[in-house]
């Protein structure tokens, strides 16, 4: 445990020194909240559009922010692999669990801080535009979206392990675009129907967004919250196990 915490502290310090992490993980979600709220305020009420209403928007934007945690996870791992840093550490008594936990823990902390700041900004914006967000729902949502944070972190670990620092960010960008497009962040996927809806239901991103929005509203029904949450949890477990297995295999290959 001590080795894990020491390694996690090192990774947290590395993230804190990267200005881009503040821009993409903290500032960008807040900017999107503000811009999309302004867009929502310009839409006539008779149009009946609710995707950009602050209660729906906050739930989507916080998931959008988690995708950047995935990006920085992939960058951190692939960058360490590209140099001799990990090779030197492989020769120490550290085990593969120390490495994977040391990478994952800081990202979960960052995701928690990110969600807190995003929800705090959403609460302030809701007061400005005259729409009340329930603080209890926002606090519950921070807990409910932890499985999605683990899922995106696992994807970042997989990409960082399998691909180099040039390819990993590009693949993460694909996931960010895919997740935001069919994850229901910027439009209602359920209303599209057809092939797009079928694809969305086969991937976990739309369920992450549904969990976040339902948790904010304390809508804890089976269809809107329980089933999507179970899907996200199952996906997070599978991807984390896969990420750890791939990292362990890569570690043995590098040592060999």
Structure characteristics:
256 residues, mainly alpha
Brief overview, please?
The chain has helices at residues 2-16, 19-42, 54-82, 85-90, 96-129, 135-144, 146-162, 167-182, 194-202, 205-216, 222-255. The protein is an all-alpha fold and 256 residues long. The longest helix is centred in the middle third of the chain and has 34 residues, at 96-129.
Structure description:
The protein is mostly helical. It has one domain (2-255). It contains 11 helices and no strands. α1 (2-16) packs across α5 and α3 runs antiparallel to α5. The radius of gyration is 19 Å and the shape is globular.
The total domain count is: 1
Q: Briefly note the structural class of the backbone.
A: mainly alpha
Distance between the termini: 26 Å
Nearest-integer average pLDDT: 86
> Gyration radius, to the nearest Å?
19 Å
Topology pattern, helix = H, strand = E:
HHHHHHHHHHH
Strand content: under 5%
Count the beta strands.
0
Low-confidence segments: none
Biggest sheet: strands, sense, closure? none
